[in-house]
Structures are given as C-alpha cells and as structure tokens.
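Troubleshooting: if your tokenizer reports a length mismatch, compare against these two reference records.
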Amino acid sequence: MKQYVKAAVLMTFCVVAGIHALPIWAAAPEELLVVHTRSLRGTSSNYDETKEYKYQLLQLILEKTEKTDGPFKIEVPKQELPQARDIELLKQSYFDVLLTMTSKEREQELHPIRIPTNKGLYGYRLAIINESDQPKFSAIRTLSDFQTLWAGQNESWPDTQILRANGFNVVGTSGYNELFTMLKERRFDFFPRGVHEPWKELADVKIPGLVVETDLVIHYPAPGYIFTNKDNLKLADRLERGFRMAIDDGSFDRFFYNHPEIKNVLERANLKNRRIFELTNPLLPEETPLDDKRLWYTP
C-alpha cells in the first residue's frame, strides 16, 4: 500500500513540476477585439458587407495594429436605422464605431478621428434627378439659377443645413429610402449625393427614370470621419494609429485609388468637365485638417 502511495505522490510531483517548468514567457491567448459598427449600406437588403468600402477600410486600419494590439473581428448588422438614431446609440455605447460626415455638433457629442475616410469625396455632390429634367439642369449657369430648384435630404444630415445656409430650398424627411420615391413623385427636383454614392444607390433601388445628372457638381469641404463614443478612447487610439500608419506607408492611397467602387465613380463622375458650384460649410469645425493635402482628393 505504501508503494502505491509513494507512486501517486511521485506522479503528482512530476505533474506539478512539469507545469512549473513551462516557460514563464508563454503568452496567454490574445483577446479578440470585436468592433461593432452600424449598417454600411441602406438601399439593399441583399449585400455582402465585407465588399463595402467602409468595411474594407476598417479592416485595413485594424490590420495595421494587429501585431501590437491583437486580433479583431468586425460585426455589421443588416438593419438600417435613421442616422440620428445611430448617433444616439453610439453616444450610449450600443455599438463601437460610426463612419459618417462630420459637423461641429457631432464632434462635440462623439469622438472624431480627424482623417477623411474617403479623402473628402462627401463634399463633391452630384444630383440624382428625373431623366426628363436633364435639359433644365443643363441650362443652369449661375448659383442663383441653381437655387430656384428644390433639393431633397434627410433632415438630420449636415448637408441639409449646409444647403440651406447657401440659399438652397430643401425638402427634409426623417428617412433615406423614401427620398428616391419622393424624387420620382417630383416632390423636389434633385437629390444631392456624394460623388461615390449615386450609381450604386440607383442600381440598388431600381426605380425607372431616375438618373445621375450629367453637367453640374456642388462642392464644399465635408470630410467623413470614423467616430467612437467619447469614452472609448482605447479603440479610438488604435483606429487613429492604424489609419496614420496606412497613410504613411502608402497603403491607404493604394486602397482608395484601386478600390473598384472609387475607381468606377471617379471615372463616371467626370468632375473635370462639370460646372462646379463652390459653397461654404458653416458646420466645419476649426480642427478640420484642411492643410494636410495628403488627406484630400483633388480633381
């Protein structure tokens, strides 16, 4: 019996000794960072979010810090919510990041990462119109001519305030998808969209007779940023470090200019051959990095 006890004690000692013999530097499994964002495309219920520009940008940025900060996963809901609701939910930490256009109010309520996510393309606005109205738009030569027409926008979008501040009449609504139907019903004359948006949106909504206007472009400085909750500074720091690394090593420019969505819209937009109407942006915060030319697209 004593021999069995000795054997058991010896085995226990070996196991314990073996455990303590493990290298003290053996790393524990890295914690997975799950980044919850909002819906990245509102016009189609059947889309692959991993192919979206915003998703791939977040992925690029987070990959830059993966070696130093650990692995990550991006989760995107399918459900679309009004943008004003998204902002309120981010303020309450129901999710982690929102990629949207900036304003003074948004930068006060949320934490902005002041690097334009699409090099300021939000500020180049093309009009979605009824195809039969193209001659009316082609005849526009002055800002005063343009201001006689009515625009349609979501009431919570900063663009709505910018257009009104520059003398445009704007029909406001609380939604997004219905703006296409309202335009078709001629409740306003045009639906201004960022230069990267209208063709994809029209392909999604499939409303006959709506087209992208061919001759005009409105421009004002209007960067879109990544926003986090004001208290989520750890995530904000990681995102900003990764973004600046991507700018410094050139991978952001390669991503931007080679992304199929961006390449397609820049070719189709033909900005150099459009009449540009320059507007002011009274909502632009003083901290906007306008002097860093690396961050902005110029036709």
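Reference record two:
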Amino acid sequence: MEKRLLQLDYNMEKNVYMGHKKYLSRHHPYRLQKKNFDGKQEHGNPPQPLSGEAIYFKLKEMIFSCEKKCGKNNRESGNDYWKRRSNFFELPYWKNLHVRHCLNVMHIEKNVCMNIVGTLLDIPGKSKDGMNSRLDLVEMNIRPELAPMVTELDALQEDIVMTLCNLEKYFPPSFFTIMVHLVVHLVREVKLCGPVYLRWMYPFERYMKVLKSFVRNRNRPERCIAEAQVCEEVVQFGSDFLYGLDPIGLGSLNSREDKQIDKPLSTRTYVHPDMQQLKQAHLHIL
C-alpha cells in the first residue's frame, strides 16, 4: 500500500491525504495539470487496498506500546498508519473478509459538508482556510496567488518600530503609555484577524453620540434613551405609510427633487403656505 499521508508543517495536528489524480482514468487532462494541484504531474496508478491477510501479517510483527492513542510513538518508529492491533484478528475468519469495517456514511457526509460550508462561509473554528493553511501553501510552493501578503506587512511593522524609536530619542518616558506601545502589535493583529476596519470602534462611538443626545434628564439616562428610541421607531414605522416623507436626514433623492431643494442646509429658504395649509396648521396647533 503506497503512502498517501502528508504531515503539514504549520497545521501540525492535521494529517492530509492528497494525490487523488491517481484515481482518474489514464489519459484524463487533470493528470498533466500542475499549477492547480500539488505542482506535479501524475503518471502513477491508484494504490491497491491491502488484503486482510497482508494487514494481519504486517501487524503481527509490530509492537505497540499503548492502546488506542499512541500516534507520536508510532511516528517515531516509522509507523504512520497503525495505532493498535485490532482484537478482531483473533477470530479465525477475520483476515479472510474483504470488508472488515464498514465506512460510516453518516459521519463522512457530515464532515464533508461541514468542511465545505465552514470554509466557504468562513465560520470560526470550522473554516479550513486560515493563516496556517496559507503558510502551508507557501511551504509546499503551490498556489502562490493564495499566499499571505506578509512582505508589505513586515515592511509596515519595521516602519512602525523605527517611528517609535525616533520618538524615544526626543520625547520623555512619560510619553510612552500603554496605548502608544500597542501600536507595535497592530501588524500582528492584521495578519491574524484581517483588515482593521472590520473591528474598529468608530461606528460604535458615533452611535454613542446619538444615544448621548437622547438624554434629557441626567438622573434617568436609561429611561431617556429608551423613550427616544421608541419614539424614533414609531416615527419610522409611521413614515412607511405616508407618501414623500423622510423621517431622518436630508431625505431621499426623489423628495428633494419634488421640493426643488438644491441648496445646503445652512441656506435660508422661504415657504409661502396657502390659506388651506394655514388653516390646517392652525387647527393642528389648537
């Protein structure tokens, strides 16, 4: 049985099994492609499964120092496949069976779907595409377009360190608080978590200003915020049933075109209501 297991350098807990091009037909075009696979052409034949007798005689000569989980000891002795000798081989007919263990279709289907969905949706803890996976591609020298952009980030890290060193030459020690020091760790966080704008606090700080404007009584700030939020929701809900009304902001483009408002907010405008509008306004105030 040909060795198909590959130990990754960065995902060290993962054992991967590649080289499925061997199972294709002899003249399949995928066999000659290198860039989209592991960088090699495939001209070999698929490995033949070992018979029960071959496995039995192979395990018969092996010495296992532990029971189920002894992977590290087995790898040191050159054994990457077998962790223990099955007790079923003590049965006289077991080594003559063509199928000794049935594949669990339910768990195979579940794991395949979980890997596909978790990677495509980038689900934390389920995705197989991370920084270590990209570094494994670099180590295997395949798919350079998926390699992490570490060169520009490393140059940025060096610029940050040089800037801080220049600041140390002219500023007193009291200048270098913990917030100034945290600048050194920004590049590392970008490498691990992605762009900064996906995590910064600017939108939350802006919304805190909106909530702060709701407070009219400092003794009851939570009540003021709750009442103002409910009022905005009611106005927003009611505006859905009124034509041409924009509850917040400058309004939509159509409403501005209907009113012929093409000046900034600071420009003074004059409104001349007719008699009917005056009567309606007077009745509304009363």
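Descriptive notes for reference record two:
- Residues 150-170 form the longest helix (21 residues).
- Residues 259-265 have pLDDT under 50 and may be disordered.
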